[in-house]
Amino acid sequence: MNSNQSPLLVVGLGNPGAKYVNTRHNIGFIVLEAWAEKLGASFAAKKQFLAQLATTTHQGVKVFLLKPETYMNLSGESVRKVVDYYKIDLSNILVVADDVYLPTGELRYRQKGSAAGHNGLKNIEKHLGTSEYSRLKVGIGSPFEEEDLADYVLRKFTQEEQEKIRATVHSGVDFLDQYLETGPRVNQIIKENYEHEG
């Protein structure tokens, strides 16, 4: 990265409020919070962005960490406001979100793609007018057949899952560090180091 680039925006998706802390749908928040702590960046409420925002700098480039407080299904409103205000290139956006189609703990990076039924990603696509933005998908596993998907994603991780999730958060933070350093090359790095068969 160099100082001529537009700022970088890394978005963690989740729902605000104590009742949603450590729920499956909030894994984007969890990873982003852990990364902010490592970077020494603090989140602050920004009403104009409908979000919590933390800021740091890497090699002369501003890096914004965003946690929308719109609730998951309206996340795009917050993302659009930040993109417009700071004039962020769409190629410099990375969204961290849960994925029920990946086994718990698996990470998958994509430079673009469909929302795959994820309402937060759908809303971001709606407000940006494109699906051409990067996303880091964090596997949270799938519900049993008789279990409602909406209920499943809003439940907290089980005791058994928590150990795996701690390791996943660590891997997610490691990935974000490498994303800062390598940019587009990170796609190959994650294939080599993070993606495993479920």
Automatic annotation (TrEMBL):
Keywords: Cytoplasm, Hydrolase, RNA-binding, tRNA-binding. The keyword Hydrolase applies. TRNA binds at Y20, Y71, N73, N119. It is an enzyme of class 3 (hydrolase). The record marks D98 as: Stabilizes the basic form of H active site to accept a proton. The active site is at H25. GO terms for biological process: protein quality control for misfolded or incompletely synthesized proteins; rescue of stalled ribosome. Its EC number is 3.1.1.29. It holds the Pfam family Pept_tRNA_hydro. The record marks N15 as: Discriminates between blocked and unblocked aminoacyl-tRNA. One of its GO terms (molecular function) is peptidyl-tRNA hydrolase activity. It is found in: Cytoplasm. It catalyses: an N-acyl-L-alpha-aminoacyl-tRNA + H2O = an N-acyl-L-amino acid + a tRNA + H(+). The keyword tRNA-binding applies. SUPFAM superfamilies: Peptidyl-tRNA hydrolase-like (SSF53178). One of its GO terms (cellular component) is cytoplasm. Belongs to the PTH family. PANTHER family: PEPTIDYL-TRNA HYDROLASE. Hydrolyzes ribosome-free peptidyl-tRNAs (with 1 or more amino acids incorporated), which drop off the ribosome during protein synthesis, or as a result of ribosome stalling. Catalyzes the release of premature peptidyl moieties from peptidyl-tRNA molecules trapped in stalled 50S ribosomal subunits, and thus maintains levels of free tRNAs and 50S ribosomes. HAMAP family: Pept_tRNA_hydro_bact. Monomer. This is Peptidyl-tRNA hydrolase. It comes from Aerophobetes bacterium. The gene is pth.
